[in-house]
From TrEMBL:
It is a multi-pass membrane protein. The lineage of its organism: Eukaryota, Metazoa, Spiralia, Lophotrochozoa, Mollusca. GO terms for molecular function: extracellular ligand-gated monoatomic ion channel activity; transmembrane signaling receptor activity. It comes from the Eukaryota. GO terms for cellular component: membrane. This is Uncharacterized protein. The chain crosses the membrane at residues 245-266, 278-297. CDD domains: LGIC_ECD_cation, LGIC_TM_cation. Residues 41-244 form the Neurotransmitter-gated ion-channel ligand-binding domain. Gene3D superfamilies: Neurotransmitter-gated ion-channel ligand-binding domain, Neurotransmitter-gated ion-channel transmembrane domain. PANTHER family: NEUROTRANSMITTER GATED ION CHANNEL (PTHR18945).
Length: 307
């Protein structure tokens, strides 16, 4: 067979590959100048307004990544958490996926990064915070913007929230705390908060030496009425169990030992004259331990420690 005919199938395969394999011919490749042109068109040419909501009702999806439990102060009834909240919402003004809506094809620019100074963000607060009641803000954390206008923002911080403690079974207690996130200024008809499919992420969680994280979950969305308006809110439930070994050795064991010793007073001879002194010594030791325990539990009558 002639060599020209042998090359014919290869030539046909090459033509088919050019026809059916997607290419980016005619589309400008990514470059800094292309991204700069896109930024100029989105934020300057289109007169992007930071204070204007992207839509009449913006749906904001929320999740939390817990890095560690810093402390649960039973006496002050305060829970401290290190982590970051992740918010994502759609801003149609930042959509460049359709080349017919832009001056040129920006298809090779997959993402843009910006900050809250240039992009609209929802006004959100930690409702039960005991340190900072201001709106969540983080100018140093960039927002990730996709070509379809999805904005992802993950401000991090140390969140200190109130946690009503139940000291009935102290030191073998389990505490149920909540972190309440609520929209501020924007009513439920303007900004709606919803939970993501995986609202609590524990992939990077570090164990706490005193408290064991039993469970963490996102609760149902709720409405918070304030005056004539209602605001969208979501709750994260965090259940902690105290690690008991330290307190068993340093609290329960001495108390049980003193209870046994106080019964031993009846083993002393009546004429020894040591009964009163022995009983008072044990009583004073017990009083010292009660003062130590009372320093670690809140002054409340809602729940009373059995000790």
């Amino acid at each position: 067979m002639d060599w020209k005919y042998r090359r014919l199938p290869l030539t046909l395969y090459g033509l088919l590959a050019l026809v059916f394999v997607p290419t980016s011919f005619g589309r400008p490749t990514y470059s800094i100048s292309l991204e700069s042109a896109l930024r100029a068109e989105l934020f300057t040419t289109n007169n992007y307004e930071v204070l204007q909501r992207p839509e009449q009702k913006v749906v904001v999806r929320i999740s939390i990544t817990i890095l560690t439990i810093n402390d649960l102060n039973i006496k002050d009834q305060a829970l401290s958490i290190s982590g970051y909240l992740t918010f994502n919402w759609k801003d149609p003004r930042l959509d460049w996926s359709d080349p017919t809506n832009t001056t040129q094809d920006y298809g090779n620019v997959d993402f843009l990064f910006s900050t809250e100074e240039y992009v609209w963000r929802p006004s959100i607060i930690i409702e039960n915070s005991i340190q900072d009641m201001g709106v969540i803000s983080d100018k140093s954390t960039p927002m990730r913007i996709t070509s379809r206008g999805m904005v992802v923002w993950s401000p991090s911080g140390i969140f200190v929230v109130s946690c009503e403690s139940d000291t009935t079974y102290y030191p073998l207690d389990t505490q149920d705390c909540k972190l309440k996130v609520s929209s501020k200024a924007y009513t439920i008809n303007e900004v709606s908060l919803v939970l993501t499919l995986d609202p609590v992420i524990l992939n990077f969680y570090s164990e706490n030496g005193e408290w064991d994280l039993v469970s963490a979950s996102g609760l149902d969305v709720r409405d918070t009425p304030i005056g004539q308006s209602s605001f969208s809110s979501v709750d994260f439930d965090i259940k902690l169990r105290r690690r008991p070994i330290f307190h068993i050795i340093n609290t329960l064991f001495p108390v049980v030992l003193m209870a046994i010793l106080i019964a031993m007073v009846f083993k002393l001879p009546v004429d020894s004259g040591e009964r009163n002194g022995f009983a008072l010594t044990v009583l004073l030791a017990y009083a010292v331990y009660l003062s130590i325990i009372s320093e670690n539990i809140p002054s409340t009558s809602v729940s009373v420690c059995y000790l």
